[in-house]
Amino acid sequence: MIGTLARRKETRDRLDRQDRQERTRSVPAGPLALTLALALLAALTAAVSWGSTSIPAGEVWSVVGRRLSGEAARPGTDDLIVWQLRVPRALLAALVGAGLGLVGTAVQALVRNPLADPYLLGISNGASLGAVAAIVLGLGAGGTLALGLSGAAFVGALATFALVWAVARRGGGFAPLRLVLAGVAIGQFLSGFTSYLVLRAGDEQQTHSVLFWLMGSLSGANWELLAVPAVAVPAGWLCLQGRARGLNALLMGDETAAGLGVDVTRLRRELFTVTSVLTGVLVAVSGAIAFVALMVPHVCRLVVGGDHRRLLPVSALFGALLMVVVDIVCRTAMDTQELPVGVVTSLIGAPALLYLLDRRLGSGSR
Among 45, 15, 18, which Cα is nearest to 245's? Predict the structure, then answer.
C-alpha cells in the first residue's frame, strides 16, 4: 500500500514537472484563446458579408441585432440573406469545426497517436454509412430528419469504433499503428458499402445530393439543422474538459494512468461514447470532412503543449476558425458552383499528413 502511494506521488511529481516545463516553452493559452475568439468573430462577420451578394458588415450586425432583440424582419433581400441563409451556415461551420477539433484531440489521446482522427480510424466512414442508410431507406423523414440522421450516424460511428478497437486489440496488447491500419481497412470497406447503397437509390437527384454531401457540405444549413450540433458540441466539450486530467494520464500509458487512480476502462468507455456521439452529429449535418480533426489538435499541441486543460478549448476555437474560413473559400472560389468542403480540407490536409508522417518516420530513424 505504501509502495503504491509512493509510486503515485512520484508519477504526479513527474507530470507536474513536465507541465511546468511545457508551460515555459508554450504560448500562454489565455491570450491565444482570446485572439482566436476575436479572429473567429471577424471570420463569422466576413462569412455573412461575403458572397454572390455582398452586404456591408455594419448592415450584417444591424440585422443580427434587430433579430436578437425580437424585432420583426424588415422587407428586403438583405434581411433574408443575412438571417435565414448566411448566419445559420456560418454558425454551423463554426460548430462543426469546433466539434472536429474536440473529437480529434480526444481520439489522439485515446489511442496515444497524434496521427489518429475519426476519418483515418474509419469512424467517419461508419457514421456516413449510417446516415446514408437512413437517407436511402427513408428514416427520419419530415421534421425529425436531423435527429434521424444524427441517430443513424451515431450508431454507425459507435459500431465502427468498437470494431476497429476489437481488431486492433486482437491477441492482447495495444499497438497504435495496428489501430490506424485497422481503421483504414475497415473504413474503406464501409466506404464501398456506402457507395453501393447510394447506387441502389432510385432517385437520381437523391444520389447526386448524397454524393455531394459525402464530400462535405454545409449548403443545407438552416436554423432547424443547427439545433442538434448547438447542443451536442458544447456538451461534448464540457464532458471532455471534465476529463482533461484523465486524458493527460492516458498519454503516459494505461499502467501509469491506473497508478494515478484513473479508472482506465471506464474513461475509455466514456471517451468512446462522447467521440462517437459528436462524430455522428457532425457527419449528419455536414458529411464526412477529412483531415480537420487530424490537423487542428496537432497544430494546437505544437503551440500550447499537450496539457488537455489548455489544448481542448484552443483546439475547439482553432477548428471553428478554420472551418469558417474554409467555408468562405468554398462559397466564393468559383462563380458558377460551390466547392464541397471536403475538397478544400483534403487539399490542405493531405500535405499536412505527409509532413507529419515524414517527421515521425524521421524521428524514428534517428
Answer: 15
Q: Which three cell numbers stand for residue 146?
A: 436531423
> 312-348 pLDDT, tens per residue?
999 999 999 999 999 999 988 887 788 888 888 988 8
Q: How far apart are CA 314 and CA 304, in angstroms?
A: 8
CA 200, 217, 228 angle in degrees (round to 5)? Answer: 95
DSSP line for 130-141: HHHHHHHTTTT-
What pLDDT does residue 361 have? 58
Domain ranges in the chain are 103-356
What is the distance between the alpha carbons of residues 21 and 309, in angstroms, rounded to a whole number? 15
Cα dihedral 106, 37, 229, 205, rounded to 10, equals -110
Q: Is 60 exceeded by the pLDDT of residue 193?
A: yes
User: CA-CA distances (angstroms) from residue 52 to 125, 333, 341?
Assistant: 33, 11, 18
Q: Tens digits of per-residue pLDDT, 102-129?
A: 999 999 988 887 777 887 788 888 888 8
SS3 (DSSP) at 172: coil
End-to-end CA distance of the chain: 40
- Provide the percentage of residues in the chain whose pLDDT is more than 70: 81
Residues 183-194, mean pLDDT to the nearest whole number: 89
**Which alpha helices (H) appear in 262-307, and where do they start and end?**
264-286, 292-304
User: What is the CATH architecture of 103-356?
Assistant: Orthogonal Bundle (1.10)
Record the pTM: 0.85
* DSSP annotation of 144: G
Question: Which among 96, 19, 14 is positioned nearest to 311, based on CA atoms?
Answer: 19
Distances in whole angstroms, Cα of residue 123 to Cα of each of 62, 89, 183, 258, 275: 41, 24, 8, 27, 9
Q: What is the pLDDT of residue 264?
A: 85
Helix (H, G, I), strand (E, B) or coil at 291: coil
> Per residue in 202-232, pLDDT tens?
667 667 667 767 788 888 888 988 998 999 9
Which CA distances in Å does 221 have to 69, 88, 204, 279, 327?
23, 6, 22, 17, 12
Q: How far apart are CA 208 and CA 201, in angstroms?
A: 10
As given in the structure block, the three cell numbers for residue 344 are 478544400
